[in-house]
Structure formats: C-alpha cells, structure tokens
Structures
1.
Amino acid sequence: MIEYNLAQKDDMKQIANFIAEINRKEESHIGYCGTDREEIENSLMEDITDIPFQEGFIVAKENEKLIGVLGFDSDLESNSAEIWGPFIIEDKWDIAAELWDKMMKILPNEISSISLFVNKKNENCIQLATNLNFNKVSEETILIFERNHIDKLQNATIIELSGEYNEDVQSLHDKTFPNTYYSGSQIIDRMNNHRKVFINIENENLAGYIYVEVNPEFGEGSIEFFAVDESERGKGIGSKLLTMALKWIFTFESIGNITLCVNSENEKALKLYKKVGFKEKHQLYYFTRAFG
C-alpha cells in the first residue's frame, strides 16, 4: 500500500539523497534542484523559507520505502512557486497524478502562478506538464565551466569596481535589467569579500561590468549579472569580463565548477560563453501555469 504524507524534518537527509540520485539522470532531471545531496539538503533547510520544507513537500512511501517526492518553493511576495519534482523511481510513475493532487491541496491560496523547469529528455514530466495545461515559455541551455579548464583562460587583468564608477555601473545595470531582483544600487550595497563587481574601462569610460557571488562553504559560485555598453559591443569586452569573474571565483578552492542558464535562442550569448570555455550540460523547457 502506498502512503502519502507531508515530509518530516527527520527525513530530510533521506529525501535529499533520493532527489540527488534521481536528478542525476537526464530522463528524470528537474532544473534548479541540484544533484549533490548536501547542497540539496541545505537548500531544503535554508532556502525554502516562505513555506517551510515540512509544509510544502509530499512524500510517497510503499512498505516504508521512499518511492516519490514532490514539493514547491514559494515566493509569497510575488505570489509564485517553483515546483520541485515530481521525483519518482522509474517503475512507479503512475503515482505522479496522486502526488500532484496531494501537493496542490497544500499550495497556499495566494499562489497565482507556478513554474516547472524540466529537462528536454524528461518525457514523463513534460507529458505531465502538458496534461496539467502548463504553457511552455522558453527553452534554456545550462552551461558549465570546470575548474580544470582555468589554465585555458586568456590573460586578463582583474579590475574591481571602485567608487569612481559606481554610478556608471548602476546606470548600465538598470538600463540593461530594468525589472530584476537586484537594482544597480542594491548590487553596490551587497558588495563584500564574497560578492564582487568587476569592470572594463575604455578611454576612461565604463565599457561593461560583471557581478558575481560565491559561497565557499558550499562550494558555490554564480555569475549574477553581466552587461557591456551598447557602443562597446563586439570588441571582446564580454570575454574579458567573464575571464575576470572566473579567475576570481576559482581562487576559492572549494568551488569545482560554475553553471549558468542561457535562453537557447540567445545565440550570441551562447557563442560567447562557449568561446570562453563553458560547455553545454543540459537543455531544458521552462513551463508556467497561472491560477485565477
């Protein structure tokens, strides 16, 4: 008999390991959930906060064996939620609909949209999204840069942002990313030993910037924002900025690789990242569904 229950804190390690194992296979891979048990456990514990893990995840067990997990990471400020899963062992996909129904019953009423980030090879989940009337918004490419490729990076002098160019960075950022999660001034305020802005200067004018963050404790690094002034594009400045960022990120020994997501139709960006040394890792579909 299959039992469906809310996840328990005591089961967090087991659930994180279950998700990690299933998410390593492209045929059952879900984006933004990770493949490392410790990283997933940390996300469940520290990142999923608006609705805690034990109130937003459903587990399915058969004869006390874990066979399925499905949950959500909600953002109540934006009335949205990202769906984690379904993560189901290969021969039990027939429980997906029941898992989904159980999860929907605990989804907060204020959530007006949900999203799924699904590997193109995850046919089961793509079919589920279709059956549930999700809309495919975009196709995305996940790229990865491995630490063992840093010796192949071109030479580039790392130039950190100084106060002299703060306003220029803010202006370029806000112009390039007018509606995003950090404004230009917020990026400046966030700068510290683990959050850096690197810049390229041409004829004493700001030509471009890149904002990166690292979390050495968990071996994580990310390229958050990156822009080149329109008048300076096509001069190799993007490659220089990426090189600066990667060289700095990999000064932290705990970081083994960097991954990033690029819209698959953005051929210029894909070409630039691959030129610097990023390799394609996954192709994913981004689905959304609105309520009300």
2.
Amino acid sequence: MTEHNMDEQSKLLEQMVRTYFEACNESDREKFYTVLADDAVHYFPPGVGGPYEGKEAIADLWIWFVKEKGSRWTIDRLVCDGNEVVIEWTHFKPLAGEHIRGAEWYEFDESGKILTIIAYYASPRDATLKANELEGYPYAERGYPLMPPQA
C-alpha cells in the first residue's frame, strides 16, 4: 500500500469498508467497483455459498439480496490497525422477516482496495462437519495451523 502514517491509513481503510456497506445498502454496482479489487474474494461459513470470486460476483450477490430480501446492513463495531479492518455487522432481511449477525475480516491490495472478505456468522457449530471452517478458504496457503499443538 502507499505510505501513510497509521492514522491516515486507518482512516482510508475504514472509509473503504464504510463505502462498501453504502454500496450494499444502495445496491450500487459502480460504488462496489470503486472499493473492490478486480480479483476480490468473499469467503463464507459452510452451507452459505461461496466463495464469491471477483468484484462482479460480490456485487451481484448483494444486489440480489436487496432486490429479493429488502436487505440492509449495519456496521455495529469496527477496528482497524492501519493494515486490516475487522467489523461486527447486522444483516437485516425485512422481506423475509429475518436478520443475522456476524463479523468480517477485510484485507486490502496494494492500492487500498478490498481484496479479501472473510465472513463469520453468529451461529452454532455444525456437528456434521469434522472441520467448521470457511468453505474454499486457503488455510494451509495462509499459514494457519492444520494440526493441534503438541501437549
């Protein structure tokens, strides 16, 4: 990323995420494209769908939700360290009479656009799965542990 002091960088990244949520709520494809990298990927918990790859696929997903479910989102908490952003959110689906809560981790490319969105939902563990992980997320490639630490 371009060099900025930590406060400036945090403000820029925070604004990218806030603009992303504006794009969601406004169902604004062009606004999505201003904040998402061309090769952005959105990961989800098992059974939800995804990962969604590319800014077009991510924009299509949320535009569909606004049309079909009347979706609206809020950012409930946000933390930024100048390199990454983590939020808690609520996704309201008025036409379905539902809402869900969760958290997301945002990673950015060199230009400051959103490259990766890692979503976690406030939901129970799926006992039918041996590994409760995001579908399609490259855990090994990202250096996550694949085995428990030695006792």
